Amino acid sequence: MLNIAIIGAGIGGLTAAIALREKGHRVNVYEQTSELRAIGAGFGVLPNAMHLLATVGLDEGVQRIGYSAGTSIVRDWAGNRLPVENWPQKPSPLGSTYAVHRGEFQQLLVSKLPAEALHLGKKAVKVHQLDDSARVDFGDGTSITADLVIGADGIRTAVQEAVGVEVRPTGEGIMAYRALVPIEKLSWALEDQRLAIWFGPQRTFLCYLVSSGKVMNVVGYVPSDRDAAESWSAPGALDELRNQFEGWEPRVLETIDAAESTFKWGIFDRPSLPRWSTRSITLLGDAAHAMVPHLGQGANQAMEDAFALATILDGADPGSLPELLKVYEGVRIDRTSLVQRVSREAGRLYRDFGNDDMTKKAEAISDLITRNHIAGYDAIAEAAAALARR
Ligand SMILES: Cc1cc2nc3c(=O)[nH]c(=O)nc-3n(C[C@H](O)[C@H](O)[C@H](O)COP(=O)(O)OP(=O)(O)OC[C@H]3O[C@@H](n4cnc5c(N)ncnc54)[C@H](O)[C@@H]3O)c2cc1C
Pocket around ligand 1: residues whose beta carbon is below 6 Å from it? Predict the structure, then answer.
């Protein structure tokens, strides 16, 4: 049994806490915010994460709070249907995709943990490797020690430094406007609840339902010559969003006009890290491998990390930890580097969208995802195989 401290109560940190507790470890989660508020918007729990959540009985909860759109409908900016089926990915043997609101999903994860395991208002400022354990210093002047400290503290990670690695974000020349709109305000969505995407010159408009099908999650990707903040709450102006999609078909404009607010999301890339761990400290999720959002895999990769780590640490004690962390980072660096690279390639295809060959481009994105087996990966089986090979 290990005494484990997780820094960050985001998607990866909470999933790791659930998966590691299932293996009998003592786990505490330390989160900088004093309240877990539903900031942000939606994302898809894709088949590669959905089947992992099922192993800890979370699949029903995801189905309840989420929405499974089944198929999708792909159009060009003028509203013409493009003959692209099953976009963006072909059905996976691992199951279906459920789109969720991040805040509701976070609450679902919290509900699986005992209240005493979650410590709010604890901002980690420094993590130290000791002889055979690690110490975390918090901004409030307190400290804790643990056999293992997991940095699940997102894109602005404080734990990465303790591992002796650092990556700098690079702008992608694009940004996204995000909005949430109640479905009853959208006549087109009341008639057709499938995921809908419109491709136009250098811009993409994406809509899918979250919150049990009650709310439309709206994303408008646009070029940006100045770097928008890498933030989940930076306010945007609705008239700016409308100008970006001026002249697009009525469904797009109806959606923008129905939004009461929008926020801006700067999109940044990062190279892969060469290593994630010391003897008693490791990384997980965006702290280890933040990626561009074009495959929708960021949260899903954090959940893969969580279940892979729990599989590898099943039955672990402090003595076996350094070797097991090497197995974890070995299997996960390979996988997440691939997903980072394919996300980057998909981003290039998105940015190149011109007025012609839109069907070909949309198909190329779909093929890229399917060819690289992104949503068909079984993180538990792969982690168990890596453990057996050691
Ligand atoms: C508020 C918020 C809203 C988001 N909304 C969306 C969305 O709508 N759609 C989408 O696709 N992705 C969203 N994301 C990003 C998405 O959750 C992540 O890209 C992905 O889930 C990977 O999860 P993660 O656990 O690695 O990081 P995150 O989910 O980002 O979680 C990191 C957590 O660590 C905490 N933290 C950071 N630094 C410290 C510290 N020093 N000490 C203690 N705690 C710390 C953060 O407050 C956060 O709770 C959002 C992230 C945040 C933080």
Answer: 7-13, 30-33, 39-43, 102, 123-124, 152-154, 156, 158, 232, 285-287, 298-299, 302
What's the rounded Cα separation, in Å, for the pair 295 and 20? 27
Residue of 102, 122, 155 best suited for mutating to test ligand 1, as the one with most atoms within 8 Å of CB: 102
Radius of gyration of the chain (CA): 21
Q: Are 196 and 75 in contact (CB under 8 A)?
A: yes
Q: Residue ranges per domain, the chain?
A: 3-168+270-389
Tokens of 85: 């089926």
Q: Which of 312, 278, 238 has its CA nearest to residue 20?
A: 312
**Domain 3-168+270-389 falls in which CATH fold?**
FAD/NAD(P)-binding domain (3.50.50)
Angle at which helices 102-111 and 11-22 pack, to 10 degrees? 20
Tens of pLDDT, residues 78-133: 999 988 877 777 777 788 899 999 999 999 999 999 999 999 999 999 999 999 99
d(C-alpha 311, C-alpha 243), whole Å? 49
State whether residue 355 is helix, strand or coil. coil
Protein residue whose Cα sits closest to atom 35 of ligand 1: 8
Predicted TM-score (pTM) of the model is 0.95
